[in-house]
Design a protein that fits this description.
Elements lengths: L1 H8 L1 H13 L9 H36 L6 H23 L3 H23 L8 H11 L2 H21 L10 H79 L6 H36 L5 E3 H18 L6 E6 L7 E3 L2 H17 L4 E8 L4 E8 L6 H5 L15 H12 L3 E6 L4 E8 L7
Parallel strand pairs: 2-4
Antiparallel strand pairs: 1-3, 4-5, 5-7, 6-7
Helix pairs in contact: 2-3, 3-4, 3-5, 3-6, 4-5, 5-6, 6-8, 7-8, 8-9, 9-11, 9-13, 10-11, 11-13
């Protein structure tokens, strides 16, 4: 990890990062034009430092030779050059480290030009203005043309001021230095304009491709959702038709005039559990359909979860008995009925959660079902349903129940899918598990404080 961090802080690492951003299109976010310009300026500053330091080293050797071998200049020329170079690259590195590449480039250009002006005066050589070319060559490629014109005009004015102030600089060839320098810089600026245009077109094309890919992915996801939704509706239609046909057939038999009273009473008693089963499946479909609407509501009503569960216990026992499981007991463990255990939800949906879980447990052979409501220390209100049945299959424990996915032989998956839909709509979480005794369902609702009720 330390080696990687050290590598990223090296100047070369910044150039490599920029190249990788431009190459690995799918692994990096889209660069906006502003971000792309900033990265180009950063790479330019780093390149100026990497190229400039060796170049200035050679210049220093040449000046040292001119001072101490050829005796053309005074030692102050060499000392001034060394101090200027230190200032130039210190300014650039400070701003690069602070992640301010624009200020780094501006600072290096200005300090370099000041150093050139000083060398022109101390050496009495106006031809040194040509050193502007290596200083502005790379910026001319990446900076906008208008900004480069501002730099060229400002530096030309500075050079003309030097010529006006120091008569010894007015040699016969002094105009050739700026003319030749600007001619070459215009070529670099033209090249830079073309490169910047290509990069902008690349960024725009990449942006368009990314947007098209996102739209295509959204369309595919919507189509997949619609196909799944249609399949669920078709399956639900097939599944609901069975209880409907049972009810219609029973009604048709009840209308026979030859039917004796005992048979009639038996058929009537069979209608209620069948109708109850039909209502439960329809409610589960509605629960799934309206889950997005419930979850978008800013304020759900506050209900007393403990009271809701205890009030619905007699109906749960009656429904279990109607489904033919008279030996199954349904009990409640928790706080007293008058204790306030508030959550945000709807009484009807909470009742259907209980009905689906209790009837599912009874349907797979559980003879003892226990319901509890407790306020936990981690700011949740917990509703727990435990039974002594065979438990959940492993496939259901690995992923949430879906429509058309049931662990019962003739199940539809409607019940548990509706339970998950309602719990999620009320901001809760549900966990299914198996114990040594049977199935264990834990539902955690966000607990409300007294000031929220």
């Amino acid at each position: 990890m330390k080696a990687k961090t050290a590598q990223q802080t090296k100047p070369w690492g910044r150039i490599v990062n920029l190249v990788n951003r431009l190459r690995r299109r799918s692994l990096n976010p889209i660069l906006t034009p502003e971000q792309l310009n900033t990265e180009l300026i950063r790479a330019t500053v780093v390149a100026m430092i990497k190229i400039g330091i060796p170049f200035q080293f050679l210049v220093s050797l040449s000046i040292a030779r001119s001072v101490w071998v050829l005796y053309e200049y005074k030692p102050s020329v060499f000392i001034t050059h060394i101090l200027s170079v230190v200032i130039i690259y210190t300014v650039g590195m400070i701003f690069v480290i602070r992640d301010q590449p624009n200020y780094a480039l501006l600072g290096m250009i200005i300090t370099s030009m000041l150093e050139i002006y000083i060398q022109i005066v101390t050496t009495r050589n106006p031809a040194l203005f040509g050193v502007v070319l290596p200083v502005l060559a790379l910026p001319a490629v990446v900076l906008p043309r208008a900004r480069m014109f501002h730099f060229t005009i400002a530096f030309t004015i500075g050079f003309l001021i030097l010529i006006a102030l120091f008569p010894f600089l007015r040699t016969s060839d002094w105009p050739s230095a700026p003319i030749l320098t600007w001619s070459i810089l215009i070529g670099f600026m033209t090249l830079g304009t073309g490169i910047q245009g290509v990069l902008r077109e690349y960024a725009a094309t990449k942006d368009a491709h990314e947007e098209e890919a996102i739209k295509r992915a959204l369309t595919e996801e919507q189509n997949r959702f619609l196909i799944q939704h249609n399949n669920r509706l078709l399956f639900a239609q097939h599944d609901l038709r069975g209880p409907c046909n049972t009810v219609l057939g029973t009604i048709e038999v009840l209308q026979l005039p030859s039917l004796d009273s005992e048979t009639r009473q038996s058929l009537v008693s069979q209608l209620e559990p069948t109708t109850l089963q039909l209502r439960s499946r329809i409610d589960a479909l509605f629960d799934q359909a309206k889950t997005p609407l419930l979850s978008l509501q800013a304020e759900l009503p506050v209900i007393n979860l403990g009271e809701t569960v205890q009030r619905h216990l007699p109906e749960l026992r009656r429904m279990v008995a109607l489904m033919g499981h008279r030996e199954t007991t349904v009990s409640f463990e928790g706080q007293r009925q008058d204790a306030m255990i508030p959550i945000r939800g709807r009484v009807g949906e909470i009742q259907r959660i209980l009905e689906n879980l209790v009837l599912n447990a009874a349907g797979v052979g559980a003879t003892s079902i226990s319901i509890s409501v407790l306020e936990m220390e981690d700011e949740v209100t917990r509703l727990t349903i435990k039974d002594n049945g065979p438990g959940f299959p492993e496939t259901m424990l690995l992923r949430p129940p879906q429509l058309m996915l049931s662990h019962r032989e003739h199940g539809t998956g409607l019940g548990l899918a509706g339970v998950f839909a309602n719990v999620q709509a009320f901001g809760g979480k549900i966990r299914l598990s198996n114990t040594s005794v049977g199935a264990h369902v834990i539902i955690d609702f966000p607990r409300l404080m007294s000031h929220q009720c």
